[in-house]
Amino acid sequence: MKNRFRAFLITKDDSGQKAELAELGLNDLMDGDVVVAVSHSTVNFKDGLALTGRSPVVRKFPMVGGIDLAGTVETSSNPDFKPGDKVLLNGYGLSETHFGGYSEYARVKSEWLVPLPKQFTTAEAMAIGTAGYTSMLCVLALEDAGITPDKGPIVVTGANGGVGSVAIAILAKLGYRVIASTGRKEEEAYLKSLGASEIIDRAELSGEPRMLGKERWAGAIDSVGSKTLANVIASTQYGGAVAACGLAQGMDLPTSVAPFILRGISLLGIDSVQMRRERRLQAWERLARDLDVKKLASMTSTIKLADVKQAANDILAGKVRGRIVVEIA
After folding, report:
1. What is the pLDDT of residues 274-296, one digit of tens each?
2. I need a labelling partner for 119 at 20 to 30 A (CA). Which of 27, 56, 100, 252 fits?
3. 4-116+299-327 CATH, one of 3.50.50.60, 3.40.50.450, 3.90.180.10, 2.30.30.40
């Protein structure tokens, strides 16, 4: 174990917030009963907000960025985790109140860790990351609401992003007909390669919302929020369900009670950060079963730790397709 190591540190002073590579020691790490040698992390939309300061994600300074990590246990005082074990971690306040994954080492609480499924390498687990794990939580929620493939198509908004890309791949493998909503028509071939049956322009959903529209889909996975989510709800068929997990367009929801009381639609809020351990394990077990690793590779690019700041700007600008893996070591 190194005494000194690299981390991408977010700091704040009177001149504002900064994010840059720094050198830390083991004594700088936060409390926890397991030390993980981090091999990979990833860049999610939330990471982009945290690193750029565009949204007040970080609540303690200084802070190591990265809401995900995967690697190997170095030391542990919990007998459930032993040196050499491969583990992953999503959320639980990483890069908000606890040092995150953009560091060669992380000291964390053992109850936050999930054993790495044997079907994945640490790089593949981070190609999934919080975005893909959230996609699986959305699919599980739709299943729990009774939305089966025979009920009708599922629309996926923000289809080119991490949540959207993984959701399309999972839904298609499970037999759903998937409608992908995107503002980047040039990515039609990519989205169809993941399993989308139909591509619609995001402009159809991002304008002024209707309270009720033509019934077009049985369910939805939405990572956009605001007017887009309102229009998705308005076109959900009777008894349908919408899993909402993002706010790329905004945190508001300009709709009415009409779709809920006239069509019996369910709005399913998806939180990945504090999700209970049993559901996390279920989600990762299902990812291991229901996500085609070949499709995962086709949607993934890899960068070095030094490049995360540029990736953060790119993901907020809508320039990123699929998933970004960060090589830490």
Report:
1. 999 999 999 999 999 999 999 99
2. 100
3. 3.90.180.10
Name 214's Cβ contacts closer than 8 Å, sequence gap at least 6: 235
Answer whether 0.85 is exceeded by the pTM.
Answer: yes
* CATH architecture label of 131-269: 3-Layer(aba) Sandwich (3.40)
CA 160 to CA 158: how far, in whole Å? 6
Residue with tokens 């929801």: 253
Answer yes or no: is pLDDT of 1 > 90.
no
Long-range Cβ contact pairs of 208-213 (< 8 A, separation 24 or more): 209/234, 209/254, 209/255, 210/234, 211/255, 211/256, 211/258, 211/259, 212/258, 212/259, 212/262, 212/263
Amino acid residing at 79: P
